[in-house]
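Model it.
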Amino acid sequence: MRPLTRTAARTLRAALVLAVTAGLAVAAPTTAQGQDRAEATGAVSTAPAAATGGTAVAEKPYMGWSSWSLQTTSYPGVNPRGNYSFLTEDNVNRQTDALASKLKKFGYEYVNIDAGWWRGWDWTPEFDEYGRQKPDTERFPSGMKAVADRIHGKGLKAGIYLPVGLEKEAYGGGEPRIWNTDDCTTGDIVHSDLRTTNGWDSSYKIDFSKPCAQKYIDSQARLIADWGYDFLKLDGVGPGSFKSGDNYDNRADVAAWQQAIKRTGRPVHLEISWSLDIDYAKDWQATSNGWRVDTDVECYCDTLVSWENSVEDRWRDTPGWTRYAGPGGWNDLDAVNVGSAAMSGLTKAERQSYMTLWAIAKSPLYSGDDLTRLDDYGLSLLTNRDVLKINQQPGRPAKPVTSVGDEQVWASGNPDGSYTVALFNQGDSPSPVTADWQTLGFTGQASVRDVWNHENLGRHKDGITEAVPAHGSRLFTVTPHGAGLRTTGYEAESPDNILTGSASVAGCDECSGTRKVGNLYTGGTLQFTDVVVSKAGRYLVKVAYTSRDPRSVGVSANGRAPVATAFPATGGWSAVDSISVPVTLKAGRNTVTFDSGDGYAPDIDKIDVPRR
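Modeled.
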């Protein structure tokens, strides 16, 4: 079967459901140069913890297994009774046993049951007398509490799934009574016009101005807590999930779930899904323990995933979310399906890159593989202790520090003063990729360790260049021995600079000097007119900028032709981040120009030019 496009996969999932439902900081630097090093890779976290219920839930990214990837595939024999039929008590038990025997000792602990546990083979739902989801007796004959008890018996944690809102079939004409109330019914918790919500419009939107609404969420939380579940995935949440407008604003739902979980007294991890709007990241951060930053990773085809749909999207879509992750709440890149060559649909190089990005981004690491069929290479990817340590240790997630064509370098600072550095080649042919120590905030020598291969590569001066296969990666720990990088800063809003076209100065609270240059589009340019260096050569100029989405801008010096350079999203138009751009300068005075060309460029805050 030909893999679906990203859009087609979204459409398939939406159509199916509609049819069936009609940062800790690094050690404090001792010098200003040390502070520059930390800031170069975002090592100092500003993200507040968002622990639900005041517990230690999500102190680190969680690790485990989820059923959804196997439910979506048409790989032979996985879903023998039709779409999504993999989800059964027997299959959950088998995956539980495999997780306990193969992965538990490496930190994997959650067994998460995804959509469908309350639906029959034809997806007809079942509800109890209080409008709450009820397990399908053919899928789960022992009931959900027994399944959770068995998971706990293996020393693991149990996870369960619900869609946001009141499911249409649970409404029951507005007559079902809400559990533990005398005068609340399903008719008392929704809007009178029965407006719909969630990513598939499969639920009625709950009106939280009504006093009975919170009581319904409390009743659901009480049910899953009494069953013994430790994790809830709340799905179809907006703003996001490819819907916009008031009907799909579920921030009140997520806040209600946070309160309901707290009232149960049970520490339940609250994860929200599936492709959340970054404009509301602070809301997700305040009320949940994790949030999906992208669409489903599954390809909805005859493998679990494909590179094009949509593993590779994460390199583009993740960077803007980096600032929001930290203890209590993490950016969720979705399932990591690298365990089996036949089922993954990926090359060895792609499987390693997949695991590398998830690890350095500090995403939750939950496999969607059939854990009973892991191949040796897949098992080695999932159980490399040095890679898992990067994911689980304190500190900020990695982010891009350079991006030239298909070659990217991502990095983050570690608590011991070292750096995690990943080289990625997203091109379709092998290519050298270089990590320059200047982008990390230091110069000179550094010790390099190959993380995947557990091999010390000795000292390297100024940087490291490695041949990287198509869609491949390398992962290093870099320990500096050189001096901190010295730079000269130039403000974008300086009156000495030249702005043309639409370009203009704007306020920016997070920017240096609280101002930046924006409106760089369709011909707008910003030219720094007096950039002075003592020696001619190639310089890695650090550009501080803001951008809600990934954008490109032409960068040039001294009238040369502009080179289109990719700038990842920073997290919003008021959120500042930086990336290093190679520029060739002459000794003395130079001009450096940012040209929007015929597109839309990021807003520029300042540039920092290394001193020599």
